[in-house]
Amino acid sequence: MSEDPTLNAEDALLEEAQSCGTLRRFAIFSKLSGPGWLQGAVTLGGGSLAGALFLGVLAGPNLLWLQPLAVICGIILLGAIGYVTLSTERQPVDTISQHVSPILAIAWILGTIVANLVFGVPQFALATSTVVQNLIPGLHDSTVAPWIIGVVLAIVGFLVVRQYESGGSGVRTFELVLKILVGVVVASFLAVAVMIIGSGQLHIGSVLAGFVPSISQFTEPTAPLAEAAAATGANEGIWRGIIADQQRDRILAAAGAAVGINMTFLLPFTLLRRGWGRRHRGLAIFDLSLGLFVPFVIATTCLVIAAGNQFYNRTDDVIGKDGAIIANMVGSYNASADKFLSIQGSDAFQAADTAEAKTMVRAVLPDSDRRLAAMLSARDAGQLARTLQPLLGKTGANLIFGVGVFAMAVSTIIMMGLMNAAALGALFRKFNDRKVFLIGASMPLILGIFAPVIWTGASRAALAIPASVTAITLGPIAYFTFFLLMNSKGALGEYMPKGGARWLWNGLMAFALTMATLASIWALNSKGLPGQIGLVGLILLGIFGFAGFIKRRNVS
Q1: In 58, 310, 317, 480, which residue has its Cα 20 to 30 A from 513's Cα atom?
Q2: Domain assignments of the chain as residue spans, ordered by start
Q3: Does the structure show a pLDDT above 50 at 524?
Q4: Which positions ≥6 away from 144 have C-beta within 8 Å?
């Protein structure tokens, strides 16, 4: 590595950064950044899009504080992973096997592979729907187009990931491509938010107030929705409970899911492939802040602003002027109304055994209940683009949102291939084997081609539930494992944090671990039997990890 002229140039810049002023150091670190942008490309995917849209629907700008806090928790974990990786200058999967538990190391690898294979598929579905709905509407009714788009996406993803495998300048080219894609995502959604605020539809004061957390949001609806609930009379308590539960679900889900299990596996692989070592530990923290925190917060904030402005406390995009549910919102409205009817214990709804019978029960709901069901109906990016047409024009809305969402999906597709390549190499302990790397990269890309049949109906639920349980279970385990490693003299030797630095790391990790664990327990409790199995797995893996750490804590 010492003979690589690029690395020699990086060393010279790092030396300069030790003694130069703040602005010059910022410029140097920005130039050297890379792996953190790959993390940003992963987290800005379909999950972030859906989460931001629903936050806007549910609370307008009032929950803008949530996603920055969630990603800070994730960066704490990734910062610890980076510190352990660069201090030991070896793959953490080996460090975990030696100093904590081989069982946790294998669970980490397998959980990453499961997440890549299952959650890569909806990214293909998102990219395809964006093309046929926003970018090339003429393909909307084509049955062949989704398959062609899937094949093209898989080929492009494979070629880009193969560029990374070539090493050297290929790694930097790969990082540049992902930086550009992340930049497109941020620029697209930022443009929408700026136009909304500039048009006077939303005051900047409301946006700034949304970054102030409120404990009441765990138990109480925001004021406009509380008024709408009060208008339902005897059903007020039911609706307030539904709204509060949804707010709490989003808060806890974001706390536990800002950084996925596969992202934790990606970071050390990309740090070591970049040739970084102990001297790069400060740069690695900066890199995560610039490449992950900044784009994620800007993009998701703008999405929440846009969704809140168009959907929060509104029903006109769900209930038509004639009182009928608008065609493309029937499914979302029905899901919202059915939740209320199930909790209410409506005898007529429970007795309805056909779709037609259920439709009749929904049709006789009082207007106040129908309005709340409409307010809480889920929306997607296509619906948001359509509602922004008066502001941006039809072509402008489709283009800005289409390009942003498409770049979001494509960047995540590429990263799923890279993450799976890294995980498969770790599984077989062949971190630098080209054949294993390319096979691993191909797995989620080939599977994604079949998104039109895999990510629909019963097959979607059959895949998503066990996969999400696996990811939710392993999330806190990753926090716990690296919390232990940051306190392992055997693993870190002289580089184990000491004094105030150790107190700071432990305090931050304890906070992030608590948030992730509470979020996971809450999420697992909502998933029935699979969730109960996940809770048992969470406890057992935690026991294995702590027992292994105690047994090996002084092993050098």
Answers
A1: 58
A2: 38-313+380-453, 327-375
A3: yes
A4: none
354-387 CB burial, b ≥16 within 10 A, e <16: eeeebeebbeebeebbbbbbbbbbbbbbbbbbbb
For the residues 424-439, what does the mean pLDDT come to? 92
Query: Pick from 55, 157, 161, 137: which is nearest to 451 by CA?
Result: 157
| Pick from 455, 428, 207: nearest CA to 312 | 207
Q: Would you say how long the chain is, in residues?
A: 556
pLDDT tens readout for residues 480-500? 999 999 999 888 999 999 999
- Arch. (CATH architecture) of 38-313+380-453: Up-down Bundle (1.20)
At 7 the pLDDT is 59
Query: Which residue has 């790694």 as its token pair?
Result: 171
Rounded Cα–Cα distance for residues 4 and 347 (Å): 74
Q: Which residues contact 531 (CB under 8 A, 6 or more apart)?
A: 469, 523, 524, 525
Question: Which pTM was predicted?
Answer: 0.87
What lies within 8 Å, CB to CB, of 519 at 6+ separation is 252, 253, 254, 255, 256, 257, 475
Q: Which two tokens stand for residue 23?
A: 């602005």
pLDDT of amino acid 195: 85
**Largest alpha-carbon pair distance within the chain?**
77
Find the range with the poorest average confidence among 41-50, 218-227, 282-291, 540-549. 41-50
**For the residues of 400-429, what is the DSSP string, one character each?**
HHHHHHHHHHHHHHHHHHHHHHHHHHHHTT
**Mean pLDDT calculated for residue range 120-129:** 89
> Mean per-residue pLDDT for 295-311?
90
Q: What CA–CA distance (Å, rounded) separates 547 from 27?
A: 45
